[in-house]
Amino acid sequence: MMANRGLCLGVNVDHVATLRQVRGSTYPDPLQAAEECRKAGADGITMHLREDRRHVQEADVRAVRDWKGLPLNLEMANVPEIVKIALDVHPDEVCIVPERRRELTTEGGLDVVGQAARLRPTVEALGEAGICVSLFVEARPEQLESAAALGASCVELHTGGYCEARGEAREHELARLIAGARRAHELGLRVNAGHGINLENIKGVLRIPHLEALNIGHSIIARAVFVGIGSAVREILEIMAEYTGGERA
Ligand code: PXP
């Protein structure tokens, strides 16, 4: 993601497409949302092309790619059909995620350790095509070490556990993310974070060191219902501007 400020924001526009798909209408258009995000100061657009195509369609991904208004980060499962599309669409960045058909959203991090043999050819093919490869992982040392060994250039730390936890459990999850970011950085990986981040829990996320980008979707699109997508993006960016490298309590 193009770093025009310290901490970059990638807006995930999947749920703009969700609103369109639930009614089989032609609107709202994720591309139009992408342009509003750009005008509001976002640094990138994230889209998850799921195997079941429940929200974003291949044409949406191509439209955002051709628009070229902001770098495109394509979230995708490691399956041949989607890998082929990614190589053809050629997004700036790909984030490989686990995907289960019945899940409401991406549930856990990628098992890089267990799936290394299946991931290796994909990471290599995308990397050779000049696409930056990120792996969506839980902040566990063995997963991060495997990601580095596979040659990924980046990891996206799964913040879902932290965002859903309360009280002491939340502090524990945050400590895990902080340690994970440190380890990933030591391993030479670029560090992004995402999942479940909203206006309430983002303050804790900003304690994670070495962050380059946050990918935020659902909470921004939900907030946009009341304030518009431009304002929703600006609200988050205003808080992200406070990022000074993390770790303060
Ligand atoms: N990052 C990854 C890898 C994801 O799979 C998702 C959900 O699609 C997000 C970030 C955005 O999560 P949320 O919609 O909860 O902000």
What does it look like?
By secondary structure, the chain is α/β, with parallel strands linked by helices. The radius of gyration is 17 Å and the shape is globular. The chain has a single domain (8-240), classed as TIM Barrel, CATH 3.20.20. The protein has helices spanning 14-23, 30-40, 58-67, 80-89, 112-128, 141-150, 160-164, 167-186, 202-205, 218-227, 229-240, and strands at residues 8-12, 44-48, 72-76, 93-96, 132-137, 154-158, 190-194, 211-216. The mean pLDDT is 95. Helix content is 48%, strand content 16%. The two termini are 28 Å apart. Helix 2 (30-40) packs across helix 11 (229-240), helix 5 runs parallel beside helix 6 (141-150) and helix 10 crosses helix 11 (229-240). The protein has an eight-stranded parallel beta barrel, surrounded by eight helices. It has eleven helices and eight strands. The protein binds pyridoxine-5'-phosphate. Pyridoxine-5'-phosphate binds next to strand 8 and helix 10.
